Amino acid sequence: MIITILNGSPRNEGATAKILKEIADYLTKKSDVNVKYFDLANYSMKFCKGCLQCDYTGKCVISDDGIEDLRNEFLNSDGIVIGSPTYQSSIPGQLKAFFDRAHFAPFEKPFLGKYGFAVVTYSMSGAGLAINQIREVFISNGAAMAGRLSIKLPHNAEPFTRAEDRRRLHEKAGQFYESIKYHKRRSFFEAAYFWIVLFVFKKFCEKNPLKYRRALEIMKQRRP
Predict the structure, then answer these.
(1) How confident is the model at residue 224 (pLDDT cuts 50, 70, 90)?
(2) Which of 30, 87, 102, 188 has the fewest CB atoms inside 10 Å of its own CB, making it the most exposed?
């Protein structure tokens, strides 16, 4: 079982990172789990150019900043944990830029059969919006949401001053692990939402079949 953890914070040692590393430590103790941990801040990420070449070729034209390799780590995982602080009551710009660059497209069904876990830290507000932004990336690309957790903390505070907080985190991580191990089914809403998104995208592509030829070919080939 491969679980990929991404810290979407600009801070490698902040509260969000500490929480994600605690999840990584917990999951690493499982004999059947291989955990891969990445800090988005370690990448000199370039912004999406909006050229849509990823829709035509399946690859981003930017190949020298490691983001395509990071994208492939997601595709090769059974479970994905994405952690984020809240900046301006939302996810930070770096994480949004990664979602743009990673070109996760519903027609490729990149997360079908995978499980997502969203972790958000916040000090005042925005946790719900940040969770929903990560959740949207997961379920619109076929994943089952197997965990979500928002933790209220002062800026960069220690997240485990109480034993109860660590216990709660382990409980959530354990539920995430069991969802993957026992192949928990997506909820009806998640499954329906994904196929509706895919249907709408297909109809959009059919209006310009030459431009979206690759997408239509993939949707035809990759049936559930």
Answers:
(1) very low
(2) 188
- The pLDDT, as a whole number, for residue 96 is 97
79, β-bridge pairs: 3, 115
83 — phi, psi (to 5°)?
-110, 145
| Domain assignment of residue 105, given as a range | 2-221
State how many domains the chain has.
Answer: 1
The answer to whether 224 touches 112, Cβ cutoff 8 Å, is yes
Name the E strands within 60-114: 79-85
Rg over CA atoms, the chain: 18
Segment 111-130 mean pLDDT: 95
Task: Find the CATH number of the domain harbouring 14.
Answer: 3.40.50.360
